[in-house]
Amino acid sequence: MVLNWIWVGFFIIAFVIALVKLIFWGDFDVFPAMMDSTFSSSKTAFEISLGLTGVLSLWLGIMKIGEKGGVVNVLAKLLSPIFTKLFPDIPKGHPVTGSIFMNIAANMLGLDNAATPLGLKAMEQLQDLNQKKDTASNPMIMFLVLNTSGLTLIPISILVYRAQMGAAQPTDIFIPILLATFFSTIAGITITSIFQKINLFNRTILLTLGGAALVVAGVIWGFGQMDSILMNKVSTSAANIMLMMIIIAFILAGVRKKINVYDAFIDGAKEGFTTAVRIIPYLVAILVGIGVFRASGAMDMLIDGIKYGVEACGGNTDFVGALPTALMKPLSGSGARGMMVDAMTTYGADSFVGRLSCIFQGSTDTTFYILAVYFGSVGIVKTRHAVACGLLADLAGIIAAIAIAYLFFG
Length: 410
What we know:
Blueprint: H1 2-25, H2 30-68, H3 71-86, H4 96-108, H5 112-129, H6 138-148, H7 156-164, H8 174-196, H9 203-224, H10 228-256, H11 261-278, H12 280-295, H13 298-312, H14 323-328, H15 333-347, H16 352-363, H17 367-377, H18 386-409
């Protein structure tokens, strides 16, 4: 419903602004520009979706190998000590734990379409444990905040979009996204724990989160000692090495389990084509809406307004062009994806704005969409502190993304 009104709003606002420009300024080019944008945006959306097919097939195939090879189970065992502390109301050994782990693992790999079914399954199992069927339980809220905070290890779809948009090094935003999503997730866990009175000062949580924070601080410090050229080379190399290591690890895990790795890959890869086709209408819709909105001059007016406010406060305004992606992300993943693609199209995939929009896209998730789908699937109507925790985590991710983008690319 939210996306519906946003999409309608794009056209109505664009039409009104274009009409005003025509009547009061005699701008006869604005309406032809808006119509041209509908055709060009539709073509761009289809070309991007078509280009996604191969890479989606690749990664969904690799993910299937990892699933059958037991990688997800290994990850579950590694995360078990920290998750039992964050979900104290879930009985030890309950099946929902495995579903939560698999959902988080899919999110970490940036496979949104694979994560959603697992998340819905986990929510159904959490509802079985819920005493008040119309009210969100503490484990439900913590689970959703972990989703909305956007914890991502491999932002596959973003890397693919950057490649499609002609980025010289599509993986150069890998490390920045990893850092930004870490801060968003830490903020989400901390805020939710405060609401739920979870003791964050126990040994397991302190060691896990503290250790992770030290690693991230070390990464930031290390990159801070490099010049921009060396920083880009190191982060890109590290990203590519990690991606290749994950592929090899998944394949070796499948071989070790004596599964037919090739058949497993084919089973997963088949989903890649249907996934790519399925997103075409959504991408066409949002890119056309954004294209019309921008062609009318409305986007420039919005950006100029924010830029003026930042300048009045004495701040640097380089980041303003990427803000539409950040503002759209809590509302709609497809909407934010469209904003990200539009930013790379307008400013360039390797521009500061283009890169920052990608970091925004990877640093948080679609808070309202996730809340609506996950809670709606089990009939939850009283969300308690879920919205507040999710949005505060989003804000932390946005602030972190801006700071990290300036560190790496400013």
